[in-house]
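Below is a filled-in request sheet from our internal design queue. Each sheet records the structural input a requester submitted and the sequence that came back. We keep these sheets so that new team members can see what a complete request looks like end to end.

REQUESTER: design group, bay 2
PRIORITY: normal
MODE: inverse folding
CHAIN LENGTH: 272
BACKBONE (tokenized):
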């Protein structure tokens, strides 16, 4: 087992390793080593996870502005598939938080696909990020291996890195979501003949203070097996999130498979 190290990346060789990870994870290159060099030097963060001396994951973030405040915008994060679920994503986010706080930054923003439950577990549950914006087809139908040509809808995460809420969440993410079992559900679901999860009823006008939304816990597999069903998930959850966001609800928490029953997972929306 190699020793893992999390630290800012500095050399062209390390930035080239990030290019290779992008090609491996998404199948295309979004941020080249040239841009990484200037971002790391003149405002922003390029943070790596290294197994021994090999870069196996990275975060790329630049200075940005949102709601009139200076923030870090974390445009990319990836960990090579074989090194996932070992806490490297979490540790890179912690390193990024420390670096940004040191620059006087109070918030880090990024987008992610709301149907990727691993990302939800990390971004919402583990890190305590919240979501107040939904963007339809954010990057167009870009040729990502993960997206498989589906519309690239995204949640926008607001990670208030200086807040007491986030500090609490970083040390304890194992508590159950109080009252979760009795929350009304915005979608009814069932397993289909192939054993894949599908919606069988949407409730877009619930008025409870908190509402649960189920998503599949295996979206990548579902997309590989049934792209039509994957498109249905995209369009149906778009409808759900947009209609609740319009009525003042926000993503407040996420219940990952190990805290919900039967390997299922749920967002918890709360009225602001
Ligand atoms: C998102 C990504 C960077 C996370 O990296 P990672 O090193 O695996 O992250 P961590 O191990 O710190 O956290 C993963 C969490 O997901 C949980 N998880 C694993 N499989 C899951 C699933 N199917 N559903 C829900 N949660 C799951 C893990 O248990 C872990 O939570 P825990 O720490 O509370 O146990 C990595 O999955 C990746 O590169 N994905 C593809 C690219 C991408 O989506 N990038 C982000 C958007 S730009």
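RETURNED SEQUENCE:
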């Amino acid at each position: 087992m190699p020793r893992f190290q999390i630290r800012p990346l500095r050399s062209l060789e390390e930035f080239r390793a990030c290019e290779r990870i992008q090609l491996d994870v998404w199948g295309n290159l979004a941020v080249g080593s040239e841009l990484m060099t200037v971002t790391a030097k003149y405002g922003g963060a390029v943070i790596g996870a290294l197994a021994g001396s090999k870069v196996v994951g990275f975060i790329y973030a630049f200075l940005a502005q949102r709601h009139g405040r200076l923030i870090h915008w974390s445009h990319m994060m990836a960990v090579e598939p074989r090194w996932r679920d070992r806490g490297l994503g979490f540790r890179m986010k912690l390193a990024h938080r420390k670096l940004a706080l040191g620059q006087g930054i109070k918030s880090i923003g990024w987008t992610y696909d709301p149907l990727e439950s691993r990302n939800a577990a990390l971004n919402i549950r583990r890190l305590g990020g919240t979501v107040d914006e939904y963007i339809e087809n954010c990057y167009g139908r870009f040729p990502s291996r993960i997206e498989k040509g589906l519309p690239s809808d995204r949640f926008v995460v607001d990670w208030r890195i200086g807040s007491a809420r986030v500090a609490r969440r970083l040390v304890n993410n194992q508590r159950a979501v109080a009252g979760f079992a009795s929350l009304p559900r915005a979608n009814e679901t069932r397993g289909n003949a192939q054993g894949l999860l599908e919606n069988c009823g949407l409730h877009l006008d619930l008025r409870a203070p908190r509402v649960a939304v189920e998503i599949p816990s295996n979206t990548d597999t579902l997309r590989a097996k049934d792209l039509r069903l994957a498109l249905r998930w995209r369009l149906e959850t778009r409808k759900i999130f947009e209609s609740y966001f319009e009525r003042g609800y926000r993503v407040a928490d996420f219940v990952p498979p190990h805290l919900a029953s039967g390997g299922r997972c749920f967002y918890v929306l709360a009225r602001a």
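SHEET NOTES:
- The longest strand covers residues 54-66.
- The chain is about 30% helix and 30% strand.
FILED BY: M.R.
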